[in-house]
Amino acid sequence: MGGDRDYERKTCRSRALYRRALKVFAGGVSHNTRYYEPYPLFVKRAKGKFIWDEDGNRYTDYWMGHTALILGHSPKIVVDRLEGQVRHGTLYGMGSSLSVQLAEEVQRSVPCAEMVRFCNSGAEATMYLIRLARAYMGRRTVVKMAGGWHGYNTQLNTAVHTPFAGSESAGILAEEQAYVVSIPFNDVGAAERVLRENGEDTALVFLEPVLGAGGCIPAEKEYLKTVRELTAKHDALLAFDEIITGFRLALGGAQEYYGVKPDLASLGKIVGGGLPIGVICGIEEIVSRADPRIRDRAKFVSIGGGTFSENPPTMSAGLATLRYLRRNRGKVYTRLKRLGDELRKGVDGAFEEEGIEAHTTGASSLFMTHFAKESPRNAEESQRSNIALFVLPGHLGAISTEHDAEDISGFLKGTALFAAGVKHDHIGP
Ligand SMILES: Cc1ncc(COP(=O)(O)O)c(C=O)c1O
């Protein structure tokens, strides 16, 4: 197909930068997911739906900053706010009206968010969430989904990739993950079994309502409802990792989209309006255990937030973004879903034309294509699909409000060309 040759011809500066990057970063990257063959692009600038690489090539971006940029790159409402803010301070190291207002926006929109705490990344938020859940419940076990990705936090860095057993990393002690159990997603029987066998020690069932890195696979509605009932029956907590789905599937995230309310949730990405953030939220009785006025060490849950938590640029960017989304919620989410539906259907159609079995999963503006006979229902099925055909391995795509119907038809034309090339290379003319 010559794809790699074209890529290398057009991206000489990226290749040179990658060589330099290899001398300063392990593997040339600061986030493992940013590496792909033969070498990743290096970005010079980004605006709206476009990114430009160091060689000046322009791309329509469907990665959207790890799905964080629902309004596209550098939207005017965010840039204006930020420009004003940085003149008034980039880090107060104290609370501000901005941080209260952003927390109020989260509280107002996200069904379970009776109380909120900010930190700086999703990984931190999921780490703190577990601490809160274990302390509140006085139990040890956390049930996660096979293929569930919750950031680089130590305890949950297990069962992310096939064979979905054991740690993902050297340097993590078995003891640190001793009370984390993983079960297949969308499998009611497995959830019933784990709670029946271990219900008395289960503090928390923690899941992404749309399995993200595990294959962009939406939960079946009945599955989420049943897990909610089962956790209630076994007196365990249910938490959603909404770091991708929060403010993306709907203003109230997956909780609104599915009509299922967890006890706790982690948020991030979109809430920061393009700047770093992590959010823990949930029912007051649990989150209020982080109140530093609690003197009893057996009750108090020490969760920080960190030096940069509530930093005013993030708070301003997040506030501009969430306010925009709330004011335009009807228009934004209907449109994103329509574009997502068109894209998913069109991509599968383009592959079908060439006799290639493909299933594009996702919900609303999220999508990922799998090459398999059946549409995957969990990470194991997803990771069994023909990974050799992935354009960007294991990456889900995200549509922003900057994309339009023309972009989707361009995407489908590109897919048709790719599909024809795949047929030629793998099946023959
Ligand atoms: C579902 C989910 N949880 C947690 C994280 C970790 O967030 P962060 O990269 O901000 O640490 C991610 C990151 O992609 C994610 O997709």
Task: Please provide a written account of the structure.
By secondary structure, this protein is of the alpha/beta class. The chain folds into two domains: 3-73 and 329-427, Aspartate Aminotransferase, domain 1 (Alpha-Beta Complex); 76-327, Type I PLP-dependent aspartate aminotransferase-like (Major domain) (Aspartate Aminotransferase, domain 2, 3-Layer(aba) Sandwich). Helix content is 39%, strand content 14%. The chain contains 14 helices and 15 strands. Strands 4-12-11-10-7-5-6 form a seven-stranded mixed beta sheet, sandwiched between helices. A hairpin with a 5-residue loop joins β8 and β9. α5 runs parallel beside α11 (312-327). The longest helix is centred in the last third of the chain and has 25 residues, at 329-353. It is globular, with a radius of gyration of 22 Å. The model has no long low-confidence stretch (mean pLDDT 95). The structure holds pyridoxal-5'-phosphate.
List keywords for this structure.
Aspartate Aminotransferase, domain 1, 429 residues, 39% helix, three-stranded antiparallel β-sheet, 2 domains, alpha/beta, seven-stranded mixed β-sheet, binds pyridoxal-5'-phosphate, 14% strand, globular, Aspartate Aminotransferase, domain 2
